[in-house]
Amino acid sequence: MTSDPPDPAAPAIDAVKLVRGVVDAVETVVVGKRDVIEFVLMAVLSRGHVLVEDVPGIGKTVLSRAMARALGLSFARVQFTPDLLPQDLTGTLVFDQRTSDFTFRAGPVFTQFLLADEINRTPPKTQAALLEAMAEQQVTTDGESRTLPDPFFVMATSNPIEYEGTYVLPEAQLDRFVARIRMGYLDPSDEASMLGERLRREVTERNLPAALADGQLPELCRLRAEVTIHPDLLDYIVAVVGATREHASVAVGASPRGGLAMGALAQAAALLDGRTYVLADDVKRVARPALGHRIVIRPDLWATRVTGDSVVDDVLSEVPTPEPEAEEVP
Questions:
Q1: Are residue 301 and residue 194 in the same domain, yes or no?
Q2: 207, part of any domain
Q3: 279-311 per-position pLDDT tens digit
Q4: Domains: count for the chain
Q5: Distance, CA of 137 to CA of 177 (rounded, Å)
Q6: Degrees (nearest 5) of the Cα angle 112, 180, 82?
């Protein structure tokens, strides 16, 4: 005797309400950037990290603080500067005169939501201090590994590389980010609304209430992982990632981690849309943020308009899209 299968839409109802509640809460502070807010939340649900690359003064810090408060996570901000040392980030041993012994003083990385502000203004040695934390959720100092809080999420901001005093992020560092996004300037009407609210000081990210209760974020991450991806869409993701490696303008294509990022972000996109299965449109929506920063353009094309994002656009236009009927799960 077989029992009736559970309704696949049932667990997603509360999840959709919760994730949209987070987005709505952050949008009361970060005006006119709902798509950006959704991408940051999708990265969190994917248990990944996000890189926000844009010019100063457009609200990256406000977005990170508002997202941390809406998710109910502890928050720490590190201003990356040329003189920042790795131990300033991870922590160091200090001598305790009371015990005549060395004790570990944890650095700001021991938090749940870390804002690495202007990460490309510090030398690669200090940037590399985040590699282990982002990949393994731990840091190793003085030969001892220490586990970071769970969940642990890094939102890094970077200035365009043409700006004075910036360093190029190493490929290994970029590959640790599940997505790279850009905020861009607000529309004039949204900017006027933001100015009015900020000047009146009616709404700030510092007094934003949490939209999630304790334990709800891990549950949302679990529900995201249960969103179904049809085998044809898995083949499509592999084909897109593989095509970036064969593109004529590319020196190094997207890594297998890029395919994992595409799949996880597509699952999160489906969850935000109230579905328990992924569509090809979900995969296409996340392709640029998931793959663009992982692609290394040939050195002879650096002075051209060819970018990782443009390569992804080319690939999406060339790789055949699965038929709609093969996307849904019966």
A1: no
A2: no
A3: 999 999 999 999 999 998 888 887 788 888 999
A4: 2
A5: 13
A6: 70
Radius of gyration of the chain measured on its C-alpha atoms:
21
Residue 284 near residue 32, CB atoms below 8 Å: no
CB-side neighbour CA atoms (13 Å) of 193: 12
Instruction: Tell me which residue of 61, 38, 290 sits closest to 177, measured CA to CA.
Output: 290
Do 17 and 162 lie in one domain? The reply is yes
Q: What is the dihedral of CA 13, 70, 153, 243, to 10 degrees?
A: 50
> What one-character-per-residue DSSP string does 164-193 give?
TT--PPPHHHHTT-SEEE---PPPHHHHHH
Q: Clarify whether residues 81 and 110 are in a common domain.
A: yes
Rounded CA separation 60/252 (Å): 29
pTM of the shown model: 0.86
For residue 154, give its domain range.
1-199+215-223
List of long-range contacts for 145-148, beta carbons under 8 Å, 24+ apart? 146/91, 146/104, 146/106, 146/110, 148/109, 148/110
Copy the structure tokens of residue 211: 């939209």
Q: Give pLDDT tens digits for 148-162.
A: 998 999 999 887 655
Measured distance CA(107)–CA(96) in Å, rounded: 17
CATH number at residue 283: 1.10.8.80
